[in-house]
Design brief:
The protein has helices at about 30, 50-60; strands at about 5-10, 15-20, 65-70. By secondary structure, it is α+β, with helices and mostly antiparallel strands. Strand 1 and strand 2 (about 15-20) form a beta hairpin.
């Protein structure tokens, strides 16, 4: 059985994909955009708390690639 779960968080523009099995917990997402990314909260990603372009820029800084995104069509 494959335990590689992917969680999805969406707004009107993008869907953020989080793959916890490859996350290295560097907390770069939390440090850079704490209003969106906060692992102490459930859900830990709240897309409505920032602009899409800021979320995208923060995702690009993820060192492990655990965070990625796709555009909604």
């Amino acid at each position: 059985m494959d335990n590689k779960i992917t969680k999805n968080y969406s707004n009107n523009n993008i869907t953020v994909l989080w793959q916890p099995h490859i996350c290295v917990h560097s907390a770069i997402c939390l440090k850079g955009l704490p209003e969106v990314f906060n692992p102490q909260r459930r859900p830990w990603i709240i897309m409505e708390n920032s602009e899409t372009n800021k979320i995208i820029e923060q995702i690009k800084k993820c060192p492990s690639g655990a965070l990625s995104y796709s555009t909604n069509e």
